[in-house]
């Protein structure tokens, strides 16, 4: 408090500039406060009816150390009220569920829950915001008169912002974070959990990293194209005229638009509690806020946070002495700075930092003794151990599911195994703010035996995309379709590293099929097949699609460059025109070439085709080969090449039929998986296994 007195003596600005003028605001906003308090009474839960008879004795009484702590807190509060009469009362020792005054720092119970996600701040924050039901403060401009224990809050799964913050801070401190509960002020949207004006986090795009261009001072600077100044002036005049006419039309026409949110009459006065996480521990690079209602991460410069009164953790209590006219943007979170933060109890480790040399006079001895006596060891928390069972952890939603409304979006969440198809989350994107016209739906699944984890449905294109985790029997990664009927347009992606042929994508329609490859030794990266129409007479006879296969019209293959071969011997494109009996080879280009080398083998007109016969002449061979090697000019070499191509064409036809059969098998398996959805139970999911056993 000495820092407070020095600050008061050094800086004495006019009271009108510092004071919040709360009394003036309350007179003007009395009706608004009554409306806000009326809205807060809509909750149908009566906290006065809870049973406190089975609570431990620490909930109902105070120990001697706790009584001393309350006396010191009262003394601190009296000094604070005397030195800062314009500030609002501190939130220091509210009543607990048993009607006993408890210091707020002792309400924080550091706990590390035995679940992997609870070791990280994101897991703790998501659990708190999902597990508890939000209740508004009875009066939006004053802190609550009571602060219940985290165990009671977990038992009844509801609470206000202070209850949320204390529970989250207890979990974060137990996980090793340097976390603090914050008593401050925030916007109406944050205090009332209104996210209808915000963009859904699932729809936020990651920030694009700008590509750094290498500066080159010797780069040629091309002259700009000459432009007529008269033409530019005329364009500017036309733009000004169009803008003026548009403004007039806007003023004349009455357009029904979504009204912007009106200015909150209680802006800057609405009390809110959240969590502060300082950098340092757990390798946190930067200090940040956590809104316990949403579990979202916020910067300390976020405009939604309008000011801070005080912060506390399980060890101490700090009062903010900085100006909050600009919100929290310019606040310093160096808690060791006495001019920014007034600490309630001097920490015991600071007493050891006093000089150990013998002082010159007795007054210095007295001052040192007083400083040492001022240190106070915070008593242990009176709250019982925080426990969350496996069943409670796996089913965090008290109402079965959770619905969050965003700007043009709606997010729904379910507990695992709540739905028979494994659905745990659904995000619906709308075209309008009233959420009437659906554009896209995304669904997330868990514990599916077919390893499906996400499904996207585009209502504009009617395309459905299923995404699979690694391990599917058919090595599926994604499947895009409009219907599970064959030859209706399917795009299938595979985990190519698990396949022998390196296939990672296949696109199939009734008339064509395209396959994409990666990491093949023959450098093949794409294969395109064109099909003809089936024989109508065979279809009318009732023959199956497998027996009446689509005729193959053309097969194209594309290869990457093989650096071990000369460009004139490395094929880039290979075309098999099956019906016309034409084979065309196109080779890669050398650095100095402009036209690629080609070889075309055509069918001889008037000669019948035989499978075991190859007829080669200069008439049915067209080539452009700027080669220096003599072997490429030899007809025997071309004969051997044509013989190899005939054999490969036969193998390619079989590969195409195998691809068609594989697609039919994929559709049959997917149709069966969707008709008979099965969920897997992990060996570590004890709660689900107990439920199955019962």
From TrEMBL:
Indicate whether Protease appears among the record's keywords.
no
**Phylogenetic lineage:** Eukaryota, Metazoa, Chordata, Craniata, Vertebrata
Originating species: Loxia leucoptera (White-winged crossbill)
Q: Where is the composition biased (Acidic residues)?
A: 241-256
Q: Where in the cell is it found?
A: Cytoplasm, Cytoskeleton, Flagellum axoneme
Q: Which family does it belong to?
A: Belongs to the DRC7 family.
Output this protein's name. Dynein regulatory complex subunit 7
The biological process GO terms on file are:
cell differentiation; flagellated sperm motility; spermatogenesis
Q: What is its main location?
A: cytoplasm
Which InterPro entries does the UniProt entry name for this protein?
CEPT76/DRC7_peptidase-like_dom, DRC7/lobo, MORN_DRC7, Papain-like_cys_pep_sf
Q: Which GO terms describe its cellular component?
A: motile cilium
Dynein regulatory complex subunit 7 MORN domain ranges (all copies): 398-682
Domain (CEP76/DRC7 peptidase-like): residue spans on this chain = 271-344
Positions of region (Disordered): 233-256
Print the keywords alphabetically. Answer: Cell projection, Cilium, Coiled coil, Cytoplasm, Cytoskeleton, Differentiation, Flagellum, Spermatogenesis
């Amino acid at each position: 408090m000495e820092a407070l007195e020095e600050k008061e003596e050094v800086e004495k600005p006019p009271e009108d500039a510092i004071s919040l003028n709360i009394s003036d605001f309350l007179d003007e906003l009395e009706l608004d406060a009554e409306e806000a308090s009326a809205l807060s009474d809509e909750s149908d839960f009566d906290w006065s009816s809870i049973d406190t008879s089975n609570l431990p004795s620490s909930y109902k009484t105070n120990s001697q150390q706790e009584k001393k702590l309350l006396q010191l807190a009262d003394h601190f509060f009296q000094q604070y009220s005397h030195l800062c009469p314009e500030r609002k009362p501190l939130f220091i020792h509210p009543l607990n569920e048993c009607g006993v005054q408890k210091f707020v720092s002792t309400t924080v119970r550091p706990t590390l829950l035995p679940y992997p996600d609870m070791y990280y701040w994101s897991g703790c924050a998501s659990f708190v915001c999902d597990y508890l039901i939000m209740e508004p403060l009875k009066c939006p401009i004053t802190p609550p008169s009571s602060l219940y224990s985290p165990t009671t809050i977990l038992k009844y799964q509801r609470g206000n912002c202070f209850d949320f913050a204390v529970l989250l801070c207890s979990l974060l401190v137990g996980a090793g974070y340097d976390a603090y509960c914050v008593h401050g002020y925030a916007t109406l949207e944050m205090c009332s959990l209104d996210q209808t004006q915000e963009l859904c986090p699932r729809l936020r795009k990651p920030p694009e990293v700008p590509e750094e261009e290498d500066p080159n001072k010797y780069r040629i600077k091309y002259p700009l194209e000459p432009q007529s100044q008269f033409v530019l002036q005329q364009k500017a005049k036309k733009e000004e005229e169009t803008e003026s006419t548009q403004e007039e039309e806007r003023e004349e026409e009455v357009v029904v638009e979504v009204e912007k949110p009106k200015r909150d009459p209680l802006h800057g006065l609405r009390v809110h509690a959240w969590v502060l996480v300082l950098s340092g521990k757990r390798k946190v690079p930067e200090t940040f806020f956590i809104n316990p209602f949403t579990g979202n991460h916020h910067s300390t410069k976020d405009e939604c946070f309008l000011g801070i009164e005080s912060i506390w953790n399980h060890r101490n209590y700090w009062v903010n002495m900085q100006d909050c006219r600009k919100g929290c943007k310019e606040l310093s979170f160096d808690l060791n700075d006495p001019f920014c933060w007034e600490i309630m109890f001097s920490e015991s480790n600071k007493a050891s930092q006093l000089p150990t040399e013998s002082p010159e006079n007795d007054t210095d001895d007295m001052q040192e003794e007083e400083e040492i006596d001022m240190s106070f060891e915070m008593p242990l928390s009176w709250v019982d151990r925080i426990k969350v069972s496996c069943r409670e952890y796996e089913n965090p939603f008290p109402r079965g599911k959770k619905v969050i409304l965003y700007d043009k979006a709606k997010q729904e969440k379910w507990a695992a195994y709540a739905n028979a198809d494994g659905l745990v989350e659904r995000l619906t994107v709308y075209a309008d703010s009233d959420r009437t016209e659906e554009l896209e739906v995304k669904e997330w699944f868990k514990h599916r035996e077919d390893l499906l984890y996400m499904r996207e449905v585009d209502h504009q294109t009617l395309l459905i995309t299923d995404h699979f985790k690694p391990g599917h029997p058919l090595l599926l990664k994604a499947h895009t379709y409009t219907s599970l009927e064959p030859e209706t347009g399917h795009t299938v992606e595979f985990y190519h590293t698990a396949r022998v042929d390196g296939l990672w994508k296949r696109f199939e329609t009734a008339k064509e099929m395209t396959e994409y490859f990666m990491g093949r030794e023959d450098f093949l990266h794409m294969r395109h097949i064109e099909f003809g129409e089936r024989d109508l007479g065979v279809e009318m006879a009732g023959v199956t699609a497998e027996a009446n296969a689509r005729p193959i019209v053309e097969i194209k293959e594309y290869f990457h460059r093989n650096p071990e071969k000369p460009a004139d011997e490395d094929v880039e494109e290979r075309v098999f025109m099956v019906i016309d009996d034409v084979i065309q080879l196109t080779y890669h280009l050398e650095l100095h070439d402009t036209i690629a080398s080609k070889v075309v083998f055509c069918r001889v007109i008037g000669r019948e085709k035989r499978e075991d016969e190859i007829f080669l002449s200069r008439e049915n061979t067209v080539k452009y080969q700027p080669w220096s090697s003599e072997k490429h000019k030899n007809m025997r070499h071309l004969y051997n090449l044509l013989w190899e191509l005939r054999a490969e064409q036969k193998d390619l036809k079989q590969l195409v039929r195998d691809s068609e059969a594989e697609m039919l098998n994929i559709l049959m398996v997917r149709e069966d998986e969707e008709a008979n959805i099965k969920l897997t139970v992990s060996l570590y999911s004890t709660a689900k296994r107990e439920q199955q056993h019962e």
